[in-house]
């Protein structure tokens, strides 16, 4: 096989992984002829953050379109609704289920049993409501100070939060014995899978200057350590719901951190991006 043929085969394989990730993490349809297997879906986890980048770009596009016709507060809400629509509230569902389990269970077995129940409980409802409210208010406040920063925060945090959540597969134990909704993705994560995941998660940091990017990176590393330690103490590992919850927790935390840095006048856009937007 020639080098060109090998390269073409590799590109096709990566394209297949990406399409499987797109189908798994969003409601976007993919061709029915797309090859599928549990092994391929497992490797598709490498594109979790890339899907987040697309979701963030979709939300930003809807935001700009809505704001051309409606007030800022309404545009932000419509943008959030658009991202929930395209993902099918996949991660929000995980946050609600995990909150019900950890809030209502007294031991690991009971926590896992509650998390598997599709019904929404009090802990899940309150947590979900607060998460959506905090996201909305934080995005609104960020964009009132700077519309560009609001859009960039939306794009960046959809990607980086998914990189954080997806990276938990690499060094944590999947605690369910049965076939949970994340089981094909949760079997293992190779170093290559992790590197691709982190690359697309870190890519949007280029939208910021080096100092702001490093601050956010360090904060997210600390946040990942805390989430991993907390889940290990609560469950001895993670489930698919925990991955969704980790994405939501880190996204919400990201908006609050961004807003805090903005208030302190620490956050800065990449000078190149700034010049392209305002030249």
Main beta sheet: strand number and arrangement? Answer: none
- Class from secondary-structure proportions: mainly alpha
Question: What is the string of helix and strand elements?
Answer: HHHHHHHHHHHHH
What is the helix fraction of residues, given as a range? over 70%
Overall average residue pLDDT: 91
**How much strand content do the residues show?**
under 5%
Distance between the termini: 50 Å
Low-confidence stretches: none
Shape: globular
Our count of helices gives: 13
Radius of gyration, whole Å? 19 Å
Number of strands: 0
List keywords for this structure.
single chain; 279 residues; mainly alpha
Write a structural description.
- By secondary structure, this protein is mainly α.
- It contains 13 helices and no strands.
Secondary structure layout:
Layout: H1 3-25, H2 38-43, H3 48-67, H4 72-87, H5 90-104, H6 108-116, H7 122-145, H8 147-171, H9 183-186, H10 191-202, H11 210-235, H12 240-263, H13 271-278
Helix pairs in contact: 3-4, 3-8, 3-10, 4-7, 5-6, 5-7, 5-12, 7-8, 7-12, 8-10, 8-11, 8-12, 11-12
